[in-house]
Amino acid sequence: MRRRSHIVAARRSAVLPRGGGFRSLEMHELAATVMQAALRDAGLEPERVGEVILGNALGAGGNPARIAALAAGLPEKVAGLTIDRQCCAGLDAILLGDAMICAGLHDIVIAGGVESYSRRPLRLRTDPDGGAAQPYDQPPFTPWPDRDPLMPAAADTLARRFGISREAQEEWAIASHAKALAAQPMTEILPLEGATADSYARHLTHRLCARTRPLAGSVTSATTAAAADGAAICILVVDRLAEDLGLSGPAILAGRTLGDDPELPGLAPVAAIEAALEEAGLTPGDLACAEIMEAFAVQAIACQQQAGIDPAIVNPGGGALARGHPIGASGAINAVRLVHELRRREGYGLAAIAAAGGLGTALLLRT
Fold first, then answer.
1. 200: Cβ–Cβ under 8 A, 6 or more apart, which residues?
2. pLDDT higher than 90, residue 2
3. What is the pLDDT of residues 271-319, one digit of tens each?
4. Above pLDDT 70, what percent of the chain?
5. 8 Å CB contact between 67 and 44
6. What is the rounded CA–CA span in Å between residue 210 and residue 258?
7. Contact yes or no for 270/259 (Cβ under 8 A)
8. Are the CB atoms for 101 and 238 separated by under 8 Å?
């Protein structure tokens, strides 16, 4: 019989802006605290954990998953694995944990993502001729400079390709903030450093949107997710052990990470969504809930439209426009949100996210 993993606990921190309430926390401290809470929720002893996999994009290397595992009190045998697929990393960590369980490597895996814009190292590129090192913000995502756009410019290209106006993007952002405010308090958030809710959600209005500055064409700061700090963790347990221990949670049905046009990274999740649905034998109409990343409003709109997903089921508690975007953690936050939404609406759920370079990841769950 095929092994299948279940997400038996899912927790996250609040998402706070860069330089906010988590500014003094090291990245591993943020992740370890959320790990400990998820393990308590599941009633699992740390000694039973086989692996920890964390997505991270802005750290300086050094395998933060290992550091977080040790800080969380996991046994030294847990090696820890950190992956960097930029925005997809946190969701990819969950897919990789599921693959390890399905392959029989482990029975229990902790998977998720962590990011700290506040504590990220400065980036400098050395000069091979001995000159001064030059600072940079965005690393290269393709070998071709002419096909490696800045993310706001790529979002505007997407808007022009599909005729998604500034007004439509602002409507999406306003709705995201309104849903986030209406959904508070969120049961998945672990109180940490005094933060019990995502601090960025606000009463966004058309007047406020009209005053925001364009970042590229129709894309503005109101329709772009803010840089942020946060962590999200899922506990994955193989089905037979979950049953023996009396643990329950949605099953992981399918998942895909695929590459697409690097000049339109915001559209990349569509192919991954379609592939995951096909693997599970489902259609978009079968979904009860979808958590689609809102790095940019236009990205979420394009994915929802091109994948044929009912907008009424997308991001019912608001999205990243109303939270912020802790890059390596954002996909895992979508998964944690999905787990908790599926406790209220049984059925099939989707989490999806795009990443620079033309990458898209999709995860399907079933309660």
1. 15, 16, 17, 226, 228, 322, 323, 324
2. no
3. 999 999 999 999 999 999 999 999 999 999 999 999 999 999 999 999 9
4. 100
5. no
6. 36
7. no
8. yes
How far apart (Å, rounded) are the C-alpha atoms in residues 241 and 256? 25
Quickly list DSSP for 5-19. EEEEEEEE---EETT
List, in sequence order, the alpha helices (H) in 217-357: 239-245, 269-280, 297-307, 327-342
Q: Among this protein's residues, is 106 annotated catalytic?
A: no
Contacts of 36 (CB under 8 A, 6+ apart): 72, 73
Q: Which of 106, 177, 325, 340 is catalytic?
A: 325
Count of alpha carbons within 13 angstroms of residue 146, beta-carbon side: 0
Q: Which pLDDT belongs to residue 138?
A: 85
Among 180, 231, 320, smallest CA distance to 10 is for 231
Residue 193 to residue 25: CA distance in whole angstroms: 9
**Beta bridge partners of residue 359, listed in sequence order:** 259, 355
Residue with structure tokens 């390596």? 328
Listed in sequence order, the residues at least 6 apart from 55 whose beta carbon sits closer than 8 Å to its beta carbon are 82, 83, 84, 85, 88, 89, 90, 91, 92, 93, 112, 113, 114, 328, 329, 331, 332
| Spatial contact of 9 and 38, defined as CB atoms under 8 Å apart | yes
| Whether residue 6 lies in the annotated active site | no
Alpha carbon distance 295, 80 (integer Å)? 28
Q: Identify the active-site residue in 28, 87, 106, 234.
A: 87
CA distance 9 to 42: 6
Mean pLDDT, the chain, integer: 96
C-alpha distances (whole Å) from 274 to each of 132, 162, 204 are: 47, 19, 33
pLDDT (tens digit per residue) in 184-242: 899 999 999 999 999 999 999 999 999 998 999 999 999 999 999 999 999 999 999 99
* Total count of residues recorded for the chain: 367
